[in-house]
Amino acid sequence: MLIYLSLMYKIDDLVVNNKNLVCKITSVLHNVDFGLGPNDYFMLEPCFPTRGGSEVKYYVPTNSEGLCRRALNKNEIDELLKKVNNLDLLWILNPKVRKATFRHIYYKGDPLDALKIIRSYEVKKVELNSCGKDLSYSDNNLLNDIKRKLYNEFSLALGVEPSEVEAYIKAKIESFE
Fold first, then answer.
1. Global pTM value
2. pLDDT tens digits along 59-85
3. Which of 105, 124, 140, 162 could form an SS bridge with 155, CB 3.0 to 4.6 Å?
4. 127: buried, middle or exposed (CB in 10 Å: 19+, 13-18, 0-12)?
């Protein structure tokens, strides 16, 4: 059954687009042709600055499924965090395959998968630090990118700054142990 975005969302809703950016629906454009024939589009504006600092707008067809999802609320975040300790760790020895696999998993847009990747990296980081090593530059960049985007989404739902989200997550996970 196809559920159209136009039935699910309205102006001022917060959504996460297919680039995992938290955006606000600011308007609906009707009968616009971006080269694929006339269609109606939601205009999305990121809630946080994008890299490069330029103002970016995204246009998502109102009749497309899977191009964005509703941003999580506090209760949904807490339910996800209850599952974190039971997640299987994911680690791939080949760094190129690991990066490609983690990116692929992350860009499917499931916040639980993002938490799984973050947890896997954090456990590996502790293991490496005990040997006097650290994550590779590439792994660290991917980890920070995933954290930044997920924590931006969480910060809006929790009503805190993105820099406070990690402490919230740790405290919440500890309370579930």
1. 0.87
2. 988 887 777 899 999 999 999 999 998
3. 162
4. exposed
> Which residue spans within 77-133 are E strands per DSSP?
none
Determine the 3-state secondary structure of 2 from DSSP: coil
Does 156 share its domain with 172?
Answer: yes
Domain-ending residue, one of 28, 53, 70? 70
Cα separation, 169 vs 174, in Å, equals: 9
Do 154 and 79 lie in a common domain? yes
- SS3 for 65? coil
The amino acid at residue 39 is N
Closest CA to 154 of 38, 1, 20, 4: 20
Annotate 28-48 with b (16+ C-beta within 10 A) or e (fewer).
eeeeeeeeeeebebbbbebbe
Number of domains in the chain: 2
Q: Which helix (H) or strand (E) holds 40?
A: strand 38-46
Domain that holds residue 147: 74-176
